[in-house]
Amino acid sequence: MDNKNRKIYNKALDFHEKGEINKALDLCESILAENLGESEVLNFKGLMLYEKGLLKEAVTVWKINFDLNNDSIAKSYIKDVEYDEERIKIYKEAEQALKKSDINTALKLFIECAKSDFNCIKVNTGIAWCYQENGDYYRAKEYVDKALKIDKHAVTANEIKKQLENMELYYGEIKSRRGIGKIFIIISVVSILSIGGYYFWKSNMKNNEKLVNNVEVINESIGNEEELANKEEIEKQEENIVNKFDIESLEQDIKNKDYKSIYEKVHDVQTSELSVNEKKIYNKAVSILKKDGVTGFYEDGLRYFNQKDFDNAKNQFDKAYEYCDGDNLEQHIIFYRGSTASEQGNRDLALEMYKNYDKLYPEGSYIEGVLYELALFNWDINKEESKIYAQRLINNYPYSIYVNDKIKNILNVSN
Questions:
Q1: Domains 3-167 and 247-412 share a fold
Q2: pLDDT per residue as tens, the chain (415 positions)
Q3: From the CA atom positions of the chain, what is the Rg in Å?
Q4: Rounded CA separation 402/398 (Å)
Q5: 10 Å Cβ neighbour count for 412?
């Protein structure tokens, strides 16, 4: 390749790196118009057509290279595409599943397609769309970024990105903490609770101490009058707690669907102390929390999670978890609550959430990562249990990105 074409070729490589795949293709065409036998350019053009999902066109280019230059790389590309014929069928099945709104089936099929770079722009966009529909916006961002890295002008991928931007998921440059495939390798050595969690615990301890002191005062009282006075004071305090249930203010919040204000007013209310009318208002408030609050708290939690603000993420995921029973976001909330706990070094809560996820969603979107985490987390606690999780991961998902040396080593180690 002469110097002129080498510069053009390098520029094409640079365009491709910046997500300008069409500009890169145009530059390749300009080189090949002068010299059809440029081997590197032919292979590069074929790869870009391959990424765009144009299999026949890519193979044609590689065959030209093999015929003209006996290029071994082109020959290997041609040999490998026989597997991609099957991926075309799988991709079409995924599209059909989407048309039927069968999101989970479509997602599994798209992920199968993603095992190769063929048609990777559309495949990654499809995966992002599915994750977005399932409420897993963090992974939606991960895959839409993969699509836009190849073609920054991809229409559907950009539409998804705009929707995620509105949710503030593009907060600066968020680097992956997971490694290849964003594997959720969460082996934390932090042993303290979050500031928020610690404050809550400490506050409760103070309250418990006050209660104990009150009980001791009552027990140590000699006179019946003093004991009666203490009891009346306790009853008065309980009455004050009930009086904090401000119906008028709460009804206004319900009218405005202000789930954040509603949560602060009702999450610690003792329903047994409420009147019939108060319970009626309370139930309306809880209905808002289940309908709007769960989604809002979850989305806020994800935003904080992506910003690595795990204390605030925990606070939001805890609120969402409190009211998410039966909601379609439940599995996402359980998983991210576990991941947040792991990031904070709260191993017990992380294990609780991952086990809960495995129990409720044994075939859920995150099950591969959950089994992986459970295998690693349990290694220092219960090696037999750790091996069970590792074996399940390998048996059920032999081609998973989570089946790595760590999992294999767990199974190879004898007791």
A1: yes
A2: 788 999 999 999 999 999 999 999 999 999 998 888 899 999 999 999 999 999 999 999 999 988 889 999 999 889 888 888 889 999 999 999 988 889 999 999 999 999 889 999 999 999 999 998 888 888 898 899 999 999 999 999 999 998 888 776 654 433 333 332 333 322 222 222 233 333 333 344 444 444 344 434 434 443 444 555 455 554 444 444 444 567 888 888 888 889 999 999 888 888 887 888 888 888 999 999 998 999 999 989 988 887 889 999 999 999 999 999 988 889 999 999 999 999 999 999 999 999 999 999 998 878 888 999 999 999 888 899 999 999 999 998 887 778 888 899 998 865 5
A3: 29
A4: 9
A5: 10
Task: Give the type of residue at 218.
Answer: I
3-state secondary structure of 173: coil
CB 338 within 8 A of CB 357: yes
Q: How far apart are CA 167 and CA 144, in angstroms?
A: 15
pTM above 0.70, yes or no: no
CA distances from 299 to 143, 256, 304, 317 (A): 18, 19, 9, 9
DSSP result, 234-247: HHHHHHHHHHT--H
Q: How far apart are CA 187 and CA 210, in angstroms?
A: 38
Closest alpha carbon to 123 in 138, 141, 109: 109
Check if the beta carbon of residue 66 is closer than 8 Å to that of residue 75: yes
Instruction: Extract the tokens encoding 367.
Output: 């099950």
d(CA 194, CA 34): 64
b/e burial code for range 31-62 (CB count within 10 A of at least 16 → b): bbeeeeebbbbbbbbbbbbbbbbbbeebbebb
The CATH-assigned architecture of domain 247-412 is Alpha Horseshoe (1.25)
8-state DSSP, 81: T
CA-wise closest residue to 410 among 397, 402, 399, 388: 388
Fold of 3-167: 1.25.40
The answer to whether the CB of 113 falls within 8 A of the CB of 127 is no
Provide the residue type at 258 as one letter.
Answer: D
Nearest to 148 by CA among 164, 136, 133, 134: 164
Tokens of 309: 């603000």
404: number of CA atoms within 13 Å, CB side? Answer: 16
Q: Where are the domains of the chain?
A: 3-167, 247-412
**C-alpha 184 chain-centroid distance:** 10
